[in-house]
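R.M. (postdoc): so does anyone remember the format we settled on? I'll just put the structure tokens first.
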């Protein structure tokens, strides 16, 4: 009965006492590894790909297992070496021995359940929740694989609250921390490297790319995530490929599937391919390589996620990976050192015969899957002959995650044990104190673990239970001897949860040979040059645009500008529309040709007016000067002189004083001149009316009437100007947009109403003078200036009537020139028709300048 009872297990939590030795006697599968200890760290570590044919149950199914390719043995070595170091460390978990229980799942999801149930069982039977004899406590489970593998393990382990540390890249977007609170990730968030890929593409301006993902949940989620990130960054996906995991005879992928998906690689514009690799899809790489090399020449830049960088070295010894020469990928940043040689020197070759044979291409006498070229293993192989490629695999970035995962569990368990024990306490006492310790109790300590690894890397988790770490950007370089090397060419640093910083050493990157070490371009169309902007035709992707020139007044400095930048008001765009040039401040200056001509004309009239005034002063007692009130003649000549001089206020850079004086000064002075002309005309009429006996106009004769006309004519205009200055005075103004290349500096007249009021009053005086003179034109010539005044007023009216539309139709200095020309032309009319005939008689015909001659002419007409 006793032997029979030994085959039964007691319920979990019940411990049988006695001398019976309930050691772990359950038969282990091939490629599983176990070593006893006070506490166990279990692991589901896929290391080889296998084919599972249908079983007919006539022999042990395990014997029908056909491993196809060995890989990832360094993952197992990382766990063994870490546990070996911890057990030898007297500072970490003193008096406690860690064991391991490692399972191979052959990258098969259906094997995961068997491993999960087995690690939760004890004794001979695979029955969880039962305990037979003295059981080694399970602390945590280290697991790798894709999301589905993680999900299956997490679903089972979450029931028992067993901490689960995942070293692979599980898609963090597919789950929430609240769903599996006992899960921890030894790899940083994938979204960081996703944003790093975007930064990489933007850095090299690769805007037209292709993307390939496996037809799995992880691949689909990656594609959706990248589509969103690319859309936000202006990157276009020319083609996206979902590679189906379709196998024939368990392994061979249908060739036409790859050919149909990769036909667009011949597209010359697409030089960058983004590839998402997880544990399952990496199996496709050999098949992809063999097919791609037959049909498509190398020459594309492959950009991959971090997991590809972990796994690609597995294929070094099996396939030529020159097709991926120049590829870029991410690996977790670390200063790791390979310590695998120390591990092998301490471990038994018989225990790890599969690893040993894989290292040295040798086999033992009972090795069943040997290559014909392999030799028999010696008792102790020389580790110094291992290739550098193999040693690189022995401590890859993913292996380093596993190595740290073991230390994370050990440090968390040590932190939990510290309050319960001391260094001097016996091992039996420690085990008694922790007899009721369960794996779920380690969880809270795992969340707060924080330590420096043996390579001085800081290891800790964030609030979501995910490792905080940065990435290195590595460049894959292949050599003719079918070896390969990964060279660090940059790094990716996570600054915040939503932002990363990319640092790239472009000179260190080796590009595919087809680019002849010139940075590849991957765009839908040539870049727009400076001076152009992008415009996306309707119905086209945003990366397929046409280039159109920038409009006048706008520029674009950088290539592929989305919009043209508008130049500031004081600048204009050059011919190429790639630079803003400062506008020239334009005003009527004394130095330009137009200014010089007007100055010369003004000076000429001033000199002529002064000469006429001198002539009239020297001959002031002659009849022709005394006729028609010589005082009015002097006032008129002085007014004409001052009016000509006032034109200088309109030339030169406008300033506040000149703007205030130019219009008001001219208006008052010219009003005095026209008032004097009006007074002279009225005087002529009154003189002839007063000569008739008893005429009532005799009482208006005299100087007072003339003075009154001049005074009221000028005082009204002066009043208009005073109101103008008091309400809205003129001021200097910069007109920015009236000319493309010039800024007009001019005087703003302030109130347009007051400006045209002053101009209108001068027009009233001029018109009145013209009408009066026209009516008096037939009076006797000896005393008659009316006909000369008529012609002069006709000129003045014509000038100022044409001035208004011309003034309004011009801008800038030409508007000022029009007013100066009008001033000088009207003054010329006054001098030419009123004073030149008199000067002619005074200077050239003095015999006509007598009272008899004047009276004779009067009698002739009288």
């Amino acid at each position: 009965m006793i032997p029979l009872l030994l085959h039964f297990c007691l319920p979990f939590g019940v411990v049988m006492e006695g001398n019976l030795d309930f050691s772990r006697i359950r038969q282990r599968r091939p490629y599983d590894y176990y070593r006893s200890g006070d506490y166990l760290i279990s692991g589901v570590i896929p290391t080889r790909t296998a084919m599972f044919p249908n079983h007919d149950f006539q022999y042990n199914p395990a014997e029908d297992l056909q491993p196809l390719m060995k890989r990832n043995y360094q993952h197992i070595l990382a766990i063994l070496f870490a546990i070996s170091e911890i057990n030898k460390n007297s500072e970490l978990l003193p008096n406690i021995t860690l064991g391991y229980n490692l399972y191979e799942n052959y990258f098969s999801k259906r094997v995961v359940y068997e491993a999960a149930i087995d690690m939760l069982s004890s004794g001979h039977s695979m029955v969880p929740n039962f305990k037979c004899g003295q059981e080694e406590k399970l602390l945590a489970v280290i697991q790798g694989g894709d999301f589905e593998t993680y999900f299956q393990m997490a679903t089972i382990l979450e029931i028992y609250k067993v901490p689960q540390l995942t070293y692979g890249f599980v898609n963090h977007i597919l789950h929430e921390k609240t769903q599996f609170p006992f899960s921890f990730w030894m790899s940083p968030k994938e979204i960081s490297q996703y944003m790093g890929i975007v930064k990489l593409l933007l850095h090299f301006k690769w805007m037209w790319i292709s993307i390939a993902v496996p037809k799995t949940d992880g691949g689909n989620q990656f594609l959706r995530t990248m589509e969103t990130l690319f859309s936000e960054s202006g990157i276009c996906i020319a083609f996206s490929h979902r590679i189906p995991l379709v196998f024939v005879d368990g392994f061979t992928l249908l060739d036409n599937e790859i050919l149909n998906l990769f036909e667009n690689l011949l597209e010359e514009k697409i030089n960058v391919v983004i590839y998402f690799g997880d544990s399952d899809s990496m199996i496709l790489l050999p098949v992809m390589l063999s097919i791609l090399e037959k049909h498509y020449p190398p020459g594309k830049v492959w950009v991959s996620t971090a997991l590809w960088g972990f796994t690609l070295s597995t294929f070094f010894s099996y396939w030529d990976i020159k097709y991926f020469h120049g590829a870029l990928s991410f690996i977790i940043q670390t200063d790791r050192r390979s310590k695998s040689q120390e591990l092998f020197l301490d471990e038994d070759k018989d225990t790890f015969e599969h690893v040993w044979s894989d290292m040295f291409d040798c086999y033992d006498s009972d090795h069943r899957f040997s290559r014909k070229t392999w030799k028999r293993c010696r008792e102790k192989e020389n580790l110094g002959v291992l290739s550098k490629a193999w040693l690189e695999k022995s401590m890859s970035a993913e292996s380093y995650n596993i190595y740290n995962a073991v230390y994370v569990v050990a440090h968390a368990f040590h932190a939990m044990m510290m309050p319960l024990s001391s260094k001097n306490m016996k091992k039996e006492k420690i085990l008694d104190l922790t007899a009721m310790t369960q794996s779920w109790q380690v969880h809270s300590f795992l969340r707060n673990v924080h330590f420096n690894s043996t390579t001085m890397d800081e290891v800790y988790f964030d609030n979501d239970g995910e490792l905080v770490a940065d990435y290195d950007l590595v460049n894959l370089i292949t050599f003719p001897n079918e070896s390969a090397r990964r060279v660090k060419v940059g790094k990716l640093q996570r600054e915040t949860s939503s932002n990363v910083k990319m640092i790239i050493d472009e000179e260190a990157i080796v590009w595919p040979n087809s680019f002849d070490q010139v940075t590849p371009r991957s765009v839908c169309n040539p870049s727009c040059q400076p001076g152009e902007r992008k415009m996306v035709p309707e119905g086209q992707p945003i990366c397929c645009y046409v280039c159109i020139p920038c409009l006048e007044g706008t520029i674009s400095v950088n290539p592929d500008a989305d919009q043209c930048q508008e130049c500031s008001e004081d600048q204009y765009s050059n011919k190429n529309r790639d630079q803003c040039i400062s506008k020239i401040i334009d005003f009527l200056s004394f130095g330009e040709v137009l200014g010089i001509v007007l100055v010369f004309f003004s000076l000429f009239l001033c000199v002529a007016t002064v000469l006429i005034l001198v002539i009239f002063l020297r001959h002031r007692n002659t009849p022709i000067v005394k006729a028609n009130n010589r005082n009015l003649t002097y006032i008129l000549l002085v007014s004409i002189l001052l009016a000509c001089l006032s034109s200088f206020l309109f030339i030169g850079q406008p300033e506040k004083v000149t703007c205030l004086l130019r219009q008001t000064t001219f208006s008052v002075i010219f009003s005095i001149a026209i008032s004097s002309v009006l007074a002279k005309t009225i005087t002529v009429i009154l003189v002839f009316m007063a000569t008739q006996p008893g005429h009532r106009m005799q009482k208006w004769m005299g100087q007072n009437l003339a003075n009154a006309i001049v005074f009221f004519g000028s005082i009204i205009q002066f009043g208009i100007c005073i109101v103008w200055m008091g309400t809205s005075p003129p001021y200097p103004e910069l007109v920015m947009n009236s000319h493309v290349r010039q800024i007009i500096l001019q005087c703003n007249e302030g109130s347009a109403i007051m400006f045209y009021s002053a101009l209108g009053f001068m027009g009233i005086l001029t018109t009145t003078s013209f009408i009066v003179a026209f009516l008096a034109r037939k009076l006797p010539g000896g005393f008659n200036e009316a006909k000369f005044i008529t012609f002069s007023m006709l000129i003045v009216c014509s000038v100022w009537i044409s001035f208004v539309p011309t003034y309004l139709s011009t801008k800038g200095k030409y508007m000022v020139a029009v007013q100066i020309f009008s001033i000088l032309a009207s003054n010329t009319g006054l001098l030419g028709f009123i004073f030149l005939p008199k000067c002619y008689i005074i200077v050239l015909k003095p015999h006509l300048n007598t009272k008899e001659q004047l009276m004779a002419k009067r009698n002739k007409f009288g």
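R.M.: ...and that's the designed sequence above, right after the tokens. Also worth knowing: Residues 25-53+61-188+353-367+387-460 form a domain with the Rossmann fold fold (CATH 3.40.50.2300). The chain has a mean pLDDT of 76.
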